[in-house]
């Protein structure tokens, strides 16, 4: 019952939280859902509903189905109302526009990033803002904000008095980058927990668009209860702050100790080599959960190796420390205070120490989801044993998950929530749960059992990998196959060597700092060797081998995979005989059974003023792919642009046969290094580049010039313009004409000025043929030269075939040709921005 209830509530709340922004709430409903008394009433109703299960045995005999149905409906209704109250409470503090304010920021935790002008690292800090007021009159009620994309500063209005009251106590993400600020913000490096900072802030609403690589900043910040972004403009005053309650004081003390450890590790940071610094950064992360010093390259290395989960504070970390402390306490009790067992059983003392230690360590490491799950599971195991409750471990795990959802519905958006609970479910199915590992007989001192133990751990690793494969691909878009191999030794290295050394060093740092430094040096040296081995093997020796798996199907395939995993890990819920149905359906979805089609897909990008289009043509037997790139005024590409594009192409199945061609219509050279990197990751059969450029050493290109043609069954691409012999970039731009025997389907275009024609109203000859002109140049001289050249070169003329449905793809700044407009009538225009 519990596992089904968890699945139903999770599915409904995920849909609700994803669509609730489209709902309309008037003042009446906002006042109801925003009332604090409603939360108290909901908690009381939940406890009353849970208490009604005491009557379950009697109701189950008389009305078994009705009782379960009523209980499930009540629980679902309570969780829906709870999610709505959480949404309204969040939105009440969320700004709707950009403002400049003067406020006092309360720093309660360590920062997400370190402000260091020497290293060029940015500052990021979650903080609450209080004493909010508009920017002072002495600063003209408006401030000039540095704009890195424009030489001129942009002026942002100050926050009006009515709006700043609604933001009192809001949580914001403070940010400052030494390369993008005109003021001196060196004082940020001195900020620590338990401080109050008066500063000028530019408040910006959270961007709700998903980035090109699939990262949703809106969801990520909501899970951290951050209401807005806040760029630091200036700092006025820094002063210490004391907490009001004992709980807050304890939290600040733990955060201050985390800050002290970070400061200790960050000493002489600029003098360390890159590899040494990153080994120390990972060492600190494994002890305190502080990942501020880990850079993107190291994170990418761990992702490539399939061991990113080892960077997080997992339940194993918490359980290991709890086991050590409970063993020490019970050992001391056995030796010096045996009389205590007359009052309290030994197992209760052991469990009490484990729960207390796990709570403190979870608080110390930031109370992340896996650590919280372990704390609640230990509490649940204690209560189940104390009250002798007839509850299985799977049911207990489901109730713990429901408790976490009740306390914070937005936890459903955290990848760690799902990965943590699914991993524990798999371990329970394999009969190697964390509690059983903690209490089982050790094989360390029995050499005869070592081969069997290694074989069991290898089987467990393969079982975990394939059981969590669909969830990992759904959450992250891809998964590294190297994780199958690397995890076999990395989990043992981290779990039995590095983490114990870290925890021991952290415990001794108060009393014996020199001994702690020695232990940290040993742990860091092991990680240094691991990083070097991974870089050498995966980066240099095996770098050419594709390491990523992508989903070959859509959401329907994921649902079938989840059903298959559920049948494997929950054999008592559904019969195993049903496994063949999802297996056959998955095979059908993964197989290639495409129909003749022509698709033009816009691939999103985070690089400003660039366009990338993927053309997919299928004749029913073979697919062809062309990538069409345009520089619409960009100064540079983002550092991760190539990797993001490669991931997008993999998800569209391009890597199977490669790209038939790449066309860069613009004369800019910013795409050339990216295309060269793309060619190392998948086959690129042709590369047309507009303009006159020297070829790269690793990849040669053909200058895209007027008259170039590529043709296959049912598809032709032809360059209409492009004269690189003329030393003028205005006439080197390459405009393309496409002719196809299939009808066109446009996907993901940012804007279309005209609706695509109703194909059903066209004749049979017209609806199956397409003519598409890619016109992205803003220079009128290009088409003027084309008109002149057409008088002597028939191959450059536009095809005038009335049996084709005509499309014109352009930008808002595109230059048009009067001759083309006369020839191409009844054209559907697609505007690309």
Automatic annotation (TrEMBL):
<feature type="transmembrane region" description="Helical">
    <location>
        <begin position="484"/>
        <end position="512"/>
    </location>
</feature>
<feature type="transmembrane region" description="Helical">
    <location>
        <begin position="69"/>
        <end position="90"/>
    </location>
</feature>
<dbReference type="InterPro" id="IPR052159">
    <property type="entry name" value="Competence_DNA_uptake"/>
</dbReference>
<protein>
    <submittedName>
        <fullName>Competence protein ComEC</fullName>
    </submittedName>
</protein>
<keyword id="KW-0472">Membrane</keyword>
<feature type="transmembrane region" description="Helical">
    <location>
        <begin position="349"/>
        <end position="367"/>
    </location>
</feature>
<keyword id="KW-0812">Transmembrane</keyword>
<feature type="transmembrane region" description="Helical">
    <location>
        <begin position="38"/>
        <end position="57"/>
    </location>
</feature>
<dbReference type="Pfam" id="PF03772">
    <property type="entry name" value="Competence"/>
</dbReference>
<feature type="transmembrane region" description="Helical">
    <location>
        <begin position="460"/>
        <end position="477"/>
    </location>
</feature>
<keyword id="KW-1133">Transmembrane helix</keyword>
<feature type="domain" description="ComEC/Rec2-related protein">
    <location>
        <begin position="286"/>
        <end position="564"/>
    </location>
</feature>
<feature type="transmembrane region" description="Helical">
    <location>
        <begin position="548"/>
        <end position="567"/>
    </location>
</feature>
<keyword id="KW-1003">Cell membrane</keyword>
<dbReference type="GO" id="GO:0005886">
    <property type="term" value="C:plasma membrane"/>
</dbReference>
<feature type="transmembrane region" description="Helical">
    <location>
        <begin position="410"/>
        <end position="430"/>
    </location>
</feature>
<feature type="transmembrane region" description="Helical">
    <location>
        <begin position="379"/>
        <end position="403"/>
    </location>
</feature>
<dbReference type="InterPro" id="IPR004477">
    <property type="entry name" value="ComEC_N"/>
</dbReference>
<feature type="transmembrane region" description="Helical">
    <location>
        <begin position="318"/>
        <end position="337"/>
    </location>
</feature>
